[in-house]
Structure formats: C-alpha cells, structure tokens
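Protocol step 4 of 5: obtain the predicted structure for the target chain.
Materials: sequence only (see below). No template structures provided, no constraints applied. The aim of this step is simply to have a reference model before the mutagenesis design in step 5. Sequence pasted as it appears in the construct record:
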Amino acid sequence: MNKTDFLNEIKNGLNGLSQADIDKALDFYKEAIDDRMDDGMSEEEAVKDLGDPKEIANDVLLTTPLPKLIKAKTKPNRSLRAWEIVLLILGFPLWFPLTLTAMILVFVVYVVLWSLIIAFVATLVALIISGIAVIILSITGLFTGGFIQTLAAVGAGLVAIGLGLLLIIPVKIACKGLIVAIKAFGRWVKRLFIK
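Step 4 output (structure tokens):
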C-alpha cells in the first residue's frame, strides 16, 4: 500500500469529524511516513510499519473528546427530508426520554465510580486523622484524672491509625482499579459513537 492509499483509508475512517481534525491526523501520519522514509525505508515499508489504517482511524476516534465525537457522529451528512422531520417530531415522546435516560445512566455510572474512589480515600484519611485526634485529646485526660480511660483512648487511637496505615495499599490498589474501570467505561461509551 502506498502513502496516498494509506492516508485515504485513514480519512475514510475519520468521516464525520471536522475537516480540521481530519487534516491534523493526516498531517501527523504523513509526517510519520516521511520520517521513516528519511531513515531509509521505502514508502511501502514506512506505511506497513505504521500499522493498519482502520485501527489508526479507530485510535484517533478514541482519543477524540466525547462531545466532539458525539457532535461529529450525530450531525447528518445531508439535510433532512420532510418525512424524516415529521418522524422525528412524532417520535419525540419516545426517543427523547430514552436518549435522556441513557445519558443519565452513563453519567450516574461515572459519578458512582468516582464516588467510590472518594469514599475509600476519605475513610482512610478519617481513620488516621481520628486516631491522631483521639491520642492528642486523651493526653489531656492524664491531667484531669482517669488513667485507665486515657490508656483505653490511646489504644483506640493507635488501633485507628494502624488500621488506616494497613489500608493504604489496598485502597491504592482499589483506586487504581477504579480508575482503570473509569477509563474502560469511557472507551466503551466512545465506541458506541464510533461504530
């Protein structure tokens, strides 16, 4: 495959994006081919080295911000005919609530995943800070009397701090896993608009 065919396949895969975005992607891959050719590769070898143009177009679409992708994929390529407009208006009570529900569900899943991260971190911080606070406040109990209550409070504070410190690694792993899940969910949502 030569350079022109390669770039045309990428351009066809990016159909629907703005011309500026398509030109930006094509310029990048044009330059990548030229760089490989400057390094001594033939045109065909340089093109082959970059990979499958369909996968490249898919990767470009996956890195495109979601609002721009939605706008590009939902914009009609031609003006709507009268019967299409009538169907859109008559179908509004059906398609609008379904679309709105789908958008709300996507938003809710996204918020829940981030809320879990916040909850894990907040619990960890609360354990450590409350343990330190209990120890500091229990020391004042030595001056007011109640040695046994002070000793029990210091013990409870140390347990809270120890539990917080023990949970640092599991919380870190859980947060990394949730961030991976958030990224995968975002890619899944983008793929709905790519196909």
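Step 4 remarks: The two ends are 25 Å apart (CA to CA). The chain has a mean pLDDT of 87.
Proceed to step 5.
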